[in-house]
Specification:
The chain has helices at about 1-20, 35-50, 195-205, 205-235, 240; strands spanning about 65-70, 80, 80-90, 95-105, 110-130, 135-160, 165-185. By secondary structure, it is α+β, with helices and mostly antiparallel strands. It is about 35% helix and about 40% strand. Strands 1, 2, 3, 4, 5, 6 and 7 form a seven-stranded antiparallel β-sheet that branches. It is built from five helices and seven strands. The protein has a single domain (about 5-244), classed as Super Roll (Bactericidal permeability-increasing protein, domain 1), CATH 3.15.10. The structure holds 2-acetamido-2-deoxy-beta-D-glucopyranose. 2-acetamido-2-deoxy-beta-D-glucopyranose binds next to strand 6 and strand 7. Belongs to the TO family. One of its GO terms (cellular component) is extracellular space. This is Protein takeout. Keywords: Biological rhythms, Signal.
Length: about 240
């Protein structure tokens, strides 16, 4: 009897530990469902910053990314692969969503909003050319994006498991339109400060051109990271649990 009770308590505990706290449920037939999804997403993002790491979900404050590879641009401005490691992204949790919801016919989750600022701290490795100038180095980097208009769409499949249905997100389309971008790559050219400062200055004076060339790379990289986070969340919450 005691063992059974202990088992029951343990099961209840692990189940509670697996399910995100304060998860807001919405009714898909509610005419105001979109309002509910928007609220649920804002609450979810808020919870993610506080509790998600305790239940094995990614925290968003900061969002940690072990590896982020952004390929060279296509217009010849940024002729270098940007290899980032051990990134910390600050500001994702400050997103102000204006729209968020499911499209059940198209099997997609979509959102739109504004991010006041993303600060991305990483270790970088660069070896190539930007704006025809050689750029070589490895060290800490800080990239700041401001007033970013974001749209996102994540397509899913419905996967039946243990009598429930789970959303499995299979692709994404993310757009990031920042008003302002700044770059700071420390320790360029083996620590040659004058050369490094000059390159950073050129990058910042031409941030529009530079960012535009690698924008698809950033969109793909961040899109994939967010897709993984959403997948982790929805591997813990079935459609039946998430929606009425
Ligand atoms: C973001 O969207 C707003 C409203 O549509 C627009 O006024 C603004 O110019 C956009 N900003 C960028 C950086 O695209």
């Amino acid at each position: 009897m005691k063992t059974v009770l202990a088992l029951l308590v343990l099961t209840a505990f692990t189940q509670a530990a697996k399910f995100p706290p304060n998860f807001k449920k919405c009714n898909r037939r509610d005419p105001d469902a979109d309002k509910c999804y928007l609220e649920a997403a804002q609450i979810g993002i808020h919870e993610a910053t506080k509790y998600y790491s305790q239940i094995g979900l990614a925290s968003l404050a900061p969002l940690e990314i072990t590896e982020l590879k952004i390929g060279a641009g296509s217009q010849g401005v940024v002729n270098v692969d940007q290899n980032f490691k051990n990134c910390k992204l600050y500001g994702i949790d400050d997103v102000k969503l204006s729209e968020f919801g499911f499209d059940f016919e198209e099997k997609a989750l979509h959102g739109r909003g504004v991010l006041p600022e993303i600060k991305m701290l990483c270790e970088y490795e660069l070896n190539g050319r930007i704006l025809l100038l050689p750029i070589v180095g490895t060290g800490p980097s800080t990239i700041i994006l401001k007033n970013i208009n974001v749209t996102a769409r994540f397509d899913y499949n419905e996967v039946p498991k243990n009598g429930k249905t789970y959303f499995s997100f299979i692709s994404n389309k993310l757009t990031l339109d920042p008003e302002f971008v700044s770059f700071n790559f420390e320790n360029l050219f083996n620590g040659d400060k004058q050369l490094g400062d000059n390159i950073n200055k050129v990058l910042n004076e031409n941030f529009k051109e530079v960012f535009a060339d690698v924008q698809p790379g950033y969109e793909k990289g961040l899109g994939l990271v967010l897709q993984q986070i959403i997948n982790n969340l929805f591997s813990k919450v079935s459609a039946e649990e998430a929606l009425d």
